[in-house]
Amino acid sequence: MTMEPSDRFLRLRAVLDRTGLNRATLYRKVQQGTFPRQVKLAERCVGWRESAIADWQRNPFFYTVEPE
């Protein structure tokens, strides 16, 4: 039985802690399409889906964001 990660939102600090990336690298990877995009939660609040971060962690070198 495989446990799927919950799909809650992680804030920036939690994403940085889980991935080991620094802030500049994370945002650069988002721009390049090699890291999941953040989701706007409120006017000045963004988060990342926990499931998207887990997908990236399974294969960070070959991860690409699908075009919208």
Query: What portion of the residues fall into strands of 2 or more residues?
Result: 15-25%
Q: Determine Rg (CA atoms, Å).
A: 12 Å
**Number of helices, counting only DSSP H or I runs of 4 residues or more:** 3
Average pLDDT, rounded to a whole number, is 92
How many domains? The number is 1
Q: What this model shows, in words?
A:
- It is built from 3 helices and 3 strands; from the N terminus they run E-H-H-E-E-H.
- A hairpin with a 2-residue loop joins strand 2 and strand 3.
- The chain has 68 residues and is an alpha+beta fold.
- The mean pLDDT is 92.
- A 3-stranded antiparallel sheet has the order 1-3-2.
Essential attributes:
68 residues; alpha+beta; globular
Would you kindly provide a brief summary of this structure?
The chain is of the alpha+beta class. It is 40% helix and 16% strand.
Q: What does the secondary structure layout of this molecule look like, with pairings?
A:
Elements: E1 9-10, H1 12-19, H2 23-32, E2 39-42, E3 45-49, H3 50-58
Antiparallel strand pairs: 1-3, 2-3
